[in-house]
Amino acid sequence: MNRRTVIRSATGVAALATFGVAEGTAGTAFAATSSSGSSSSTSSAYSLELDPTAWSYDSTNDVYYQIGKVYVANPAATDYENLSIYVPGAYLTATANSDGTTYTAKANPKGTVGQYSGRTAPIVIPVNTPGYAQQAPATSYSYTGVSQYLEAGLVYVWPGLRGRNSSTSTRSDAAPWGVTDLKAAIRFLRYNRSVLPGSTDDIVLFGMSGGGAQDTVAGTSGDSPLYHPYLRTIGAAMEDAQGRPLSDAVAGVMAWCPITNLAEANLSYEWNMGQFASTGTRASTTWTSAYSADLAKAWPKYLNRLGLRDERGRRLKLTESGNGSHLSGSYYDHLIKVITTSLNNFLSDNTFPYTITTQGGPPGSGQTGTSTTYETVADYIAYLNTDSTWVTYDATTNTATVSGLEGFVNSQKAANKPVGAFDGYSRGQGENSVFAMGLNVPSHFAPLTRDVIKANETTYATYSDWNSAYGSAAYDSDFAKKDSVGKDMAWRGDAYNPLYFLSPAFGGYRQSQVARHWRIRTGIMQGDTANTTEINLQLALLNYGIRDVDFATVWAEAHTMAERTGDSTTNFISWVESVVKK
């Protein structure tokens, strides 16, 4: 199949609607798999079997754990491709070994913690990969970070994953290796399901930013053949000991602020935010100001071909408008509705006086923002309308109405990235490294961006700050290169694009198993990506037929683990309890 990332119509097999997939038990040997998919007698560097005699025990907190188990037979990076497993003590029956430090244990399906048993406990997997970076595996045991999950009765699995910043002088860890490693870890769990407590039918991923993006990719691409060449290369478990296919599909995904849909992200960023800016790379004297306008004009054409529909089945489209680029139509109305709902949720959830603290830097940076206290709702609405009136407020019903996108963006969501926010024209954005080709060589990855450059570079060349190195030829050159598995940028870009698996506009539609449970939260103020990123993900999931999509944009929050109320960990655990069968 031709898997270029340009939009096209496609038909596919129906996706399976349940979690139950062919999952075998651990056997006595692992047959490495060749690139053709057939079994091979080639010896493997590592066993895929979990050693039931190698458990350690935290008697104070009643936790069994194993640290540093390599989860593939032929790892490319043993420093990352290993995982740790943390299990509530009730889920294992164990005896001490003669060494006095380790235990031999077998699963106890009748042991209970809270509402779960050793048979039904969901397995949760963190994906903490900001900016699509690597996730370092655990190197020692600590109860603190896993306590809340284990006390709720969950099994916690922490895999190391390669990523944007873990490449070496001899190894490229760029996309799709991060999600490939995640899928391999999931397959490892299913290969060992007979000796592991917990339900491998109920694996739930959770992460924020690039982590939310990568668990979204994994959640939409379950068992996609795009990943098979990569999985085979590292000796992932493709079959159980009886030769039955194993699955890397998951039951659920929790994504906070997922920076995803990268194929379209340059375009959507300029349409949603960039078209209202006029400084920096969007200043009128720069070629990038013209580039910004052209990207903004190109996105509605792409959006309209996706065929998205709202919850009532109404086709969502953008149409030309009197001012700006396509600030009209049913999709525009839907976006304004989402923004309005977010603001009204905020007014409903909170009481005044209310203090808002702006985010001072990236999550975890330690930078603090500024705090402002608003004595009344009227004071806050007046602040929102400082530069223009775009919010009206009805004190009787305590509800607000948002009149347009421009006022909202200028007040709450100004662009903080340069034009070419994701696929940078000089390959200088972080995402260019996500798709590095070869050893740490940032690369262009977005054909939609290339198309805009190609159509307009004659005009851009009339600006004094234009450089011919920014032209479409540079994109074509990068797209033609192949990675160590022999795949080009189109293949890799499709593998990291959730809409490729969810939208009938792409060739991967219904060619994967999509997670059945989703919880998506995003801070509406973030300048890191367009509002349309999470909105389109939600709509595509609903249009695909996923019934359980818990979606909210959180007012007054930026790029963080945004929640309307409560804390993110407690809310995540409660959500898992509400959607996974007991």
The average pLDDT value, as a whole number, equals 91
**Which blocks of ≥5 consecutive residues have pLDDT under 50?**
1-42
> Rg from C-alpha positions?
24 Å
Strand adjacency order, main sheet:
1-2-3-9-8-10-11-16-17
Strands, total number: 17
Number of helices: 16
Beta-strand share of residues = 15-25%
Q: Which labels suit this protein?
A:
nine-stranded mixed sheet; 582 residues; 16 helices; alpha/beta; two-stranded antiparallel ribbon; 17 strands; disordered N terminus
Topology:
Elements: E1 56-58, E2 63-70, E3 82-88, E4 92-96, E5 103-107, E6 112-113, E7 116-117, E8 122-127, H1 147-151, E9 155-159, H2 177-191, E10 199-208, H3 210-220, H4 228-233, E11 252-256, H5 262-272, H6 287-306, H7 330-349, E12 354-359, E13 368-374, H8 377-384, E14 391-394, E15 399-402, H9 405-412, H10 430-434, H11 447-460, H12 472-480, H13 489-495, H14 498-502, E16 517-523, H15 531-544, E17 548-554, H16 568-579
Parallel strand pairs: 8-9, 8-10, 10-11, 11-16, 16-17
Antiparallel strand pairs: 1-2, 2-3, 3-9, 4-5, 6-7, 12-13, 14-15
